[in-house]
């Protein structure tokens, strides 16, 4: 009888030793060790929605105590406990006002994931990079022109410290956007990119988003500060980041953009989305507007959020227009939507996502007036597209051709975070980013922050 407790103790000791050995072996094997810093946005959790090859299962979290942190941990727990493909993350949490200093002092990982309140994000990036960490940051990295030089300095520090600073550009992994870019490189079909005019840009990208939305199977609870543009950033510097990135990525693939020479702003504007207190309560679970939002509240009941913006500009002489609109809630059966057109000398490549498309992004090829033998050209280039994306077809319709995309390529927005994370891990293994990525990130944030300055001056 006396042997049983001893055996139990020995077994427990062996299990603890095995776990410790497993953790040590993970670290010794050169696995990436993630750190999550102040996770106030659900994108921080989406990076961990699935297991990542070469990444340690132990993730160190540094944050102030509060509801933002708890929501993040609840999401990770949801991924760990789901019935299908559960993850096995172990979150080691430090709570305290000195969380940034503690993270830098302890250095328990080598890649810091940042997705949260954007007011201090540029400062977090600079201090973290200066301390020798790699950083994978959600957009936007900067929300005001006064901090643009600090971001530039962070990229210079990253090069000096031989670490990688990268932002999470999920929209590059949306299949209709990928194919729009691919067809635009086929001169027989697209011709060459038009230069356009301010009234008729060569490239237009429009994005519609919603404050009330479903994420990972439940209605998203947003922090109240998400509606404060001094913390989240105005729409023109937030979601617009994706659209500016796509214009660069599609029109000038793998080409370096010099923000001082290649970008010229034509016009910019901003406007508010109005939100009633009852709507605010539904998405924040808070009974009243916090004091920091009172500056944006009319008649104690209507919150006015500068979440909408439009930029007209020239990129290497090509006229482009990007715009972002936030509504409160999508129509039944709908969600966030995207519209995009690239105008070529032979054809236009258009992504639509409205009611006729059942709110699913759909790519079309439409001939421009005077274009000849486009159908024959499409048949000629299609095998080149199919080499990389087997199963992609085209279907003749009244207005041109619809690109038919197999379901296996339609992953959805949440899955794209894993794609970005894996791409970043590949860059870490290689020890560098492609040469064009850093200057193009700098160019992107120059465009958005300068557009905000221009919009504020525009009546």
Biggest beta sheet attributes: 10 strands, mixed
Rg of Cα set: 24 Å
Structural class: alpha/beta
State the helicity in percent bands: 25-40%
Give the tally of structural domains.
2
Q: What is the count of β-strands? A: 18
What is the CATH superfamily label of the largest domain? Dihydrodipicolinate Reductase, domain 2
Q: Work out the strand percent.
A: 15-25%
Put simply, the count of helices is: 14
The appropriate CATH architecture of the largest domain is 2-Layer Sandwich
Low-confidence stretches: 1-28
Distance between the termini: 86 Å
CATH topology of the largest domain: Dihydrodipicolinate Reductase, domain 2
- Identify the overall geometry: globular
Mean of residue pLDDT values: 92
Structure description:
The protein is 37% helix and 24% strand. It has 14 helices and 18 strands. It folds into 2 domains: 33-167, NAD(P)-binding Rossmann-like Domain (Rossmann fold, 3-Layer(aba) Sandwich), CATH 3.40.50; 171-457, Dihydrodipicolinate Reductase, domain 2 (2-Layer Sandwich), CATH 3.30.360.10. It is globular and about 65 Å long. The protein has 459 residues and is an alpha/beta fold.
